[in-house]
Every structure is written in structure tokens, then in C-alpha cells.
Amino acid sequence: MAAEERGEPERRSAGAADDRFAEVAEAAERAFRLLPAAPGDLPPSGSRDRSPARRISSDPDTVERDLVRLVLTLVELLRQLMERQALHRVDQGDLTEEQEERLGATLMILHDRMNGLCARYGLTMDDLNLDLGPLGTLLPPGD
């Protein structure tokens, strides 16, 4: 009977664990190469290396603001998706007039609160629109 069938964890050799760590390290390296470079990380204009360095720029002084920016970006993405779904339901005639009014008021309040939170942390709605490189921006333009 195999160890797995007896409910015992499978023992891996040190070599297998090293292989797994190497695999994870390679995946992390590939992920970091996809991150956009900071302007100071770009090679000099005369350099033959045309591919920019890709690094995470972290500053302990701005970590709270950056975290708030990320959270607000996700909330704004969800708000826009909910708004589109609501418009779709209104177009389909799935909602009563009272439900439409309540939904519209709720979405307006959420939009106002998002603007208030952005102002509190010195952000604009444009700051929440992450650049995804070749994919474009996360949020559609002009909301």
C-alpha cells in the first residue's frame, strides 16, 4: 500500500525539493521580467540592449498609499462591472421601476464614495487605471 493511500504524506528527496525550488524561482523570475520598468531602470539611449529592465519599485514611505491605490482600483473595477450589469438588466426589462431607482441611487453613492476616498489619499480616478502593458489599461477610458 502506498504512503499516500495510508494517509501519510509522500516523502520527497532533497533533490526533488531543490528541483521544486528551482522551478518556483524560474517562475518568479519570469513574472518579474513582465513588470514595467521604472524610468531610471531603462538602459542608456545608445545601448544595444533595447529591452528595458523590469523591477518592482517599493518605497516604505508610500506603501500605504500604494496599497490603497490597489484596493481602490479593484473596487472601481467591480463598481464598473456592476454598473454594466445593471444597465444590461435595465435594457432587458428585468427590473421594476423601484428596483431601477434604488440601483441607480446605490451606484451613484458608490461612485461618490470612490471619489471621496481618492481625494482623501491624493489620488485621481486616472491613477486607478493600471497599465497592463501590451494589453492596454485595466479600466476603460473616460468614466
Structure description:
- The structure is a single chain.
- The chain is an all-alpha fold.
- 52% of the residues lie in helices and 0% in strands.
- It contains 3 helices and no strands.
- It has helices at 14-34, 63-92, 97-120.
- α2 runs antiparallel to α3 (97-120).
- It is elongated, with a radius of gyration of 24 Å.
- It starts with 13 loop residues before the first helix and ends in a 23-residue tail after the last helix.
The mean pLDDT is 74
Number of helices: 3
Broad shape: elongated
Structural class by SSE content:
mainly alpha
Tally of strands: 0
Q: What is the helical fraction, as a range of percent?
A: 40-55%
What multimeric state do the chains show? single chain
Largest sheet composition: none
| SSE topology string | HHH
- Radius of gyration over all CA atoms, rounded: 24 Å
Assess the beta-strand content as a share of residues: under 5%
Report the end-to-end length measured between terminal Cα atoms. Answer: 61 Å
Given as residue ranges, the uncertain stretches (5+ residues, pLDDT < 50) are: 49-55
